[in-house]
Specification:
Shape: globular
Structural class: mainly alpha
Low-confidence stretches: 364-368
CATH class of the largest domain: Mainly Alpha
CATH topology of the largest domain: Growth Hormone, Chain: A
CATH architecture of the largest domain: Up-down Bundle
Number of strands: 0
Oligomer: single chain
Number of domains: 2
Order of helices and strands: HHHHHHHHHHHHHHHH
């Protein structure tokens, strides 16, 4: 168990620190080597790094596999940063909410298919067949990308790599000095505390409320995923029409109110209010989807397009940090004070991020 948890923790690190090498994605580009090239090469590397799983046994040769697993994770994080940069540079401002909603939907479907779906197929087809299918899925998206076109947006894109890297330094310095950047990082680090805290203990919480393993499994496999996906699409649609900051503020308020409602239900008579807990939890996951789509659109809006991979990756790293510290704090509060106090406290921390929204100036111009 200790080896598995240590491996899992190590494989999360590239997602947290991908902003460290993201300047290469922003800088090492030319008319012949574009963001699409970064994505394609990352996908190729991801698939190649999984191939050793066909001949190595994880149970007895885990140490040999670790470098390949780490390489695949780094490639996946690089692909993610490249896709975000491509979206920031090409998606019109008025469509970023919807695009983030659909991206969240794709992420949830992929997580379900390549997570639980892969485990089910493994029982029927065997490990080797599943690995081949996983590699095929990764590379199949490359085929679609090959038929796409990436427009050259400005003269900066036509510079050679050395000129481009040199030009990035003052922009990175300006972003590092920007008040909006630090407000965005602070917002990313605390705004999700309410739902991240609940999510960290959701399983034990439902068990302590008297729900069966079957009920909990069904909720997480179906209802929570469907609610988050639907919420993401709704949130993206509303964001594009009502405005990014207004939508983020409204969804954050709704999210915090739902977490507080869950705390109130738990503080009441659980045996009388148990029937309301799962519906409120379902609403919570829908709110998570709405807030995620709108907040990611906000992060895109305050990101310098020339630093799409670097700056946006930093914001995403802060959201990962929020997930980490929220889970740690809730894990300490629940044993001492109970679920109601823990949930209410985390919701209040989320609300503390609300005033930050109006002070984040837009640095990314709309894409024509």
């Amino acid at each position: 168990m200790g080896t598995i948890t240590a491996l899992t923790s190590m494989l999360v690190l590239p997602w947290v620190f991908k902003f460290v090498w993201s300047p290469l994605i922003d800088g090492v580009r030319s008319p012949r080597w574009t963001l699409r090239s970064w994505i394609l090469s990352s996908q190729l590397l991801m698939g190649c790094a999984l191939i050793p799983l066909l001949v190595l046994d994880p149970a007895t040769e885990l140490g040999t596999l670790i470098p390949f697993l780490l390489l695949s994770t780094i490639a996946a994080a690089t692909q993610d940063a490249s896709i975000d940069a491509l979206a920031i540079s090409t998606v019109p401002l008025a469509e970023r909410g919807s695009v983030n909603g659909w991206m969240q939907l794709g992420m949830l479907v992929g997580r379900s298919a390549l997570g639980g779906g892969a485990l089910l197929l493994n029982q029927r087809l065997g490990t080797s067949a599943v690995i081949v299918l996983l590699v095929a899925v990764v590379w199949s998206s490359s085929i679609l990308l090959l038929f796409s076109k990436e427009p050259v947006s400005d003269e900066h894109e036509k510079q050679n790599v050395r000129m481009r890297l040199r030009a990035l330094y003052p922009r990175m310095a300006a972003v590092a000095r920007s008040r909006t950047t630090w407000l965005g990082l602070l917002f990313a680090a605390i705004a999700g505390a309410g739902f991240e805290g609940v999510g960290a203990v959701a399983g034990p919480f439902l068990i302590d409320q008297g729900f069966t393993q079957e009920e909990i499994g069904t909720f997480f496999a179906l209802y929570s995923v469907a609610a988050m996906a639907g919420g993401a699409l709704i949130g993206g649609y509303v964001t594009d029409r009502a405005g990014t900051r207004r939508s983020v503020a409204v969804f954050l308020l709704l999210l915090s109110a739902t977490v507080c409602s869950l705390a109130a239900l738990t503080a009441g008579a659980p045996e009388l209010l148990q029937d309301l807990i799962l519906p409120v939890m379902t609403l919570l996951y829908a709110c998570i989807g709405m807030f995620t789509a709108s907040s990611y659109a906000l992060f895109m809006e305050i990101t310098d397009p020339a630093l799409g991979a670097t700056q946006f990756s930093a914001f995403m790293g802060a959201t990962n940090g929020c997930e980490s510290w929220s889970g740690l704090v809730v894990g300490r509060i629940v044993p001492a004070f109970g679920y109601p106090i823990a949930f209410a406290a985390m919701a209040c921390i989320s609300l503390a991020a609300l005033p930050l929204v109006r002070h984040m100036a837009r640095t990314a111009p709309p894409v024509d």
